[in-house]
Amino acid sequence: MTALAAARDTAPDPGDQVTQRLEFDDFVAARSSGLLRTAYLLTHDHALAEDLLQTALTKAWFAWSRIEGRPEPYVRKVLVNTYASWWRRRWNGELATEELPEGRGHAGTDATAASDTGHDLWQAMARLPRRQRAVVVLRYFEDLTEAETARLLGCTVGTVKSQASKALAKLRIDPALEDLR
For the whole model, what pTM was predicted? Predict the structure, then answer.
């Protein structure tokens, strides 16, 4: 076999690349809103969530030909791992202060009060350590099992259980959620 024939045999088929691109485009169209929700729940920042999702999808695109079966768990794992690497490198913006922020008044029954309650939950979630927040998001917002959460985070099921327990204990005593008790 000549070198030219060998190169022709190993060169990627343009038809396969077009098929892969179409499959990837269909996946992004179908699942990007759910993945963006996960990214937002992890970062609690729209711009960071979009950046996180874009980075995860870029990484997934380069591995697309190697992904077998359902691609969503793979892409979700890339999303969570990318988020984890970001919070290892970036400062999370918390500042120590001598004075605690003033508490909110009692929630009423109007839509504004319901919005404030939701905001209080986000404030409480933002105070959780990032690993605990990731566990809460994956377990309770994304409704993953403990085993699926452990697999995504690269830890044991026991770690997921303990992190969820600690996170829920912190949320129970968080002053932002006082009116909900």
Answer: 0.57
